[in-house]
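User: Sequence in, structure out. Go.
Assistant: Echoing your sequence, followed by the structure tokens.
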Amino acid sequence: MNESYRCWAEIDRRALRHNAKVVRDRIGAAELLAVVKANAYGHGLVGVAEALEKDAKLFGVANLEEAIQLRAALPHPIMILGPALPQEIATIAEGGFIPTISSFEEAGEFNRVARDGPISINFKIDTGMGRMGVPESEALDVFQKLPALLNIKIHSISTHHICRFRMRTQTTPVSSFSDLAKSLSNFVLRFRGISKRTCCKAPAHSRLVIRSSTSCVPASCFTVFRRC
């Protein structure tokens, strides 16, 4: 039986690539993480990722299921932006995905299951959204404990800003997150004994992108990300 639909969405891959180019021009040499969670916001997970494979350094998905689906199509690094369920931790580690961590205990669980070398993690800081992440006031203390976990490697630091309609009253603006990220990055440099010239050269976001988000992009579309 042939199925027919009264309505459908036609996705213009050229428009996607144009949008990626605009972002690329604004962020310069910083790495571009393309968020394709929730089936690329309804645009088609694999199709959108394939359209952006030459522009994006890595992709962000919501959960393990999406990560596995995307891994079957592309070899890029994949960050899981949502929290991992306890029964998913070993599979995430085995798949080489980058989990997002909200506590020292969660990082410890990944440290425990590591088998083939250190697991790269994204350290999430809660700056007001309240969904997940280490509270900002505790972030530095928790971050400084991570070197004790020998099977954990810091890949990146991130946060998710609150609704754009509340940006004026947000207690932690973009500049505060940037300052905190620099403090965490400096700790990494001191711990590793690495020159600043060779690590954490630039945050993987543009202030221009964030500014434009306050007027024309839904809050769910912008996650601030700093590569370590």
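User: And one key feature?
Assistant: The two ends are 53 Å apart (CA to CA).
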